[in-house]
Design goal:
heterodimer; A: 226 residues; mainly alpha; MetI-like fold; 11 helices; 0% strand; B: 218 residues; alpha/beta; Rossmann fold; 6-stranded mixed β-sheet; 5-stranded antiparallel β-sheet; 8 helices; 11 strands; 34% helix; 26% strand
Chain lengths: 226, 218
């Protein structure tokens, strides 16, 4: 089988899912990481543990709970249905929502690490110079955490590319809608189409390898913002 | 009288209880041994910490009054605060650091020329010397046109010659623009040279004898 004969639609879907998850999570995770790093809220360790749950939970457990909240009469599913008059389960929006939850710790943790490296006196200095907390975040914290934010973006992207269990549970395997690359590989193996599975696996492996090299280069880079 | 302060704050290692005033345009020096509570006082004045009890009034405006539950955040006090160590923003050039919160772009150029750092305008803070960084920090705070300038041992990490130069520049600045300043130092020579009003504190309390004893032992 030649590369041209492989159906790359699942890869395109994975790419679209990874790009959208990365973009949305970067925006959502930044204030969350800022809060977890600088807030004096005593119970923030409980928030931190909840955010990191997807790291330790089996994807099937997470997928099961997502199914419960995303079903048409579930908490999230009913809100979604009220707005869109459609089911969140087995849709692209559904796997996007699941990806956001599943990859959240991969966004928050690197940002938190980058924010924690910022000298607190820079933020205090910004406040004394008249900046609000929000302005200090955009003018001082973010510019000095670019490497951490970039690392978070790469981690979210690559993690989303490799998602399998959670997506299978909430999205199934609908071609062009929810059948992402990892599910396509699994199905190719099940159908004994090893060459097709091999080509797709090699493509994923190369992408992930390049991404990890990029992260290593970033970590090695000296100077502020690392 | 411009600044009227009474502060009480309990720390794990000592209890701060201090009252003082700073006249308009005066340079008040607060001195004392390490751990006396000097930096805590400046942080309370800046609004970076809250006192357990007390008040801070500036020109009739109340910044803090614990009885009336008034606390003005640092952003609204319009003060300058030069920290003990360099707090220039590392991602910005010297010029952008000075103009960070400037009210007048022309003042930025004048200040940088006055403090002899104009030629460094395109440099990043990690490429300039410690003395130049502290000059830049003073300019950054002055460019905001502050009503009160707080200096927390700004020259302590500099070598003697640079320290002398900067002390002189600070005195000149105080005379020229008549800006009220609170300067923290544990350097007795600096306290004597700069202060037209010296407050010495030990273990969070005013102790004028400490300063006299230290001067005698010189």
């Amino acid at each position: 089988m030649a590369i041209g004969e492989v159906d790359w639609t699942p890869f395109c879907l994975s790419g679209k899912l990874a790009i959208m998850t990365t973009a949305i999570l970067l925006i959502l995770a930044a204030p969350l990481a800022y809060f977890l790093t600088f807030s004096r809220f005593r119970a923030k360790f409980l928030c931190s543990a909840a955010i990191n749950l997807p790291l330790v939970l089996p994807p099937t457990v997470l997928g099961f709970y997502l199914l419960i909240v995303m079903k048409p009469d579930g908490f999230i599913g009913s809100i979604w249905g009220w707005f869109s008059n459609a089911s969140l389960l087995f849709s692209f929006s559904g796997i996007l929502f699941a990806s956001l939850i599943y990859s959240l710790p991969f966004a928050v943790t690197p940002m938190q690490t980058a924010f924690a490296k910022i000298d607190i006196r820079h933020i205090e200095s910004a406040k004394v110079l008249g900046l609000s907390s929000t302005a200090a975040f955009f003018r001082v914290v973010l510019p000095n955490s670019l490497n951490g934010i970039f690392a978070a973006a790469i981690l979210i992207f690559v993690h989303t590319l490799g998602e399998f269990g959670v997506i299978l549970m909430v999205g199934g395997s609908i071609p062009g809608r929810t059948k992402v690359s990892s599910i396509a590989i699994y199905e190719a193996v099940e159908a004994l189409r090893y060459k097709e599975a091999g080509i797709m696996s090699l493509a994923l492996l190369l992408i992930c390898y390049v991404v990890l090299i990029t992260i290593n280069l970033l970590n090695r880079k000296n100077g502020y913002g690392t | 009288m411009e600044l009227d302060v009474y502060l009480k704050k309990t720390r794990s290692d000592f209890k701060l209880e201090i009252a003082f005033t700073v006249r308009a345009g005066a340079l008040k020096v607060i001195t004392g041994p390490s751990g006396a509570g000097k930096t805590t006082i400046v942080r309370l004045l800046a609004g970076l910490e809250k006192p357990d009890e007390g008040h801070i009034r500036f020109n009739g405006e109340t910044w803090v009054d614990t009885h009336k539950r008034i606390f003005m955040p640092p952003q609204k006090r319009r003060i300058g605060y030069v920290f003990q160590e360099y707090t220039l923003f590392p991602h910005l050039t010297v010029y952008k650091n000075v103009s960070f919160a400037a009210t007048d772009e022309n003042a930025v150029v004048s200040l940088m020329k006055l403090f002899g750092i104009w030629h460094l305008k395109d440099q990043k803070p990690n490429k300039i010397s410690g003395g130049e960084r502290q000059r830049c920090a003073i300019c950054q705070n002055m460019a905001r046109n502050p009503r009160l300038l707080l200096l927390d041992e700004p020259f302590s990490s500099l070598d003697l010659e640079i320290r002398r130069k900067l002390r002189f520049e600070l005195m000149q600045l105080n005379k020229r623009i008549s800006l009220s300043m609170v300067h923290i130092t544990h350097d007795l020579a600096e306290a004597l040279l700069l202060g037209n009003d010296v407050l010495s504190i030990v273990n969070g309390k005013e102790n004028p004898d400490w300063f006299k004893q230290q001067l005698k032992s010189l």
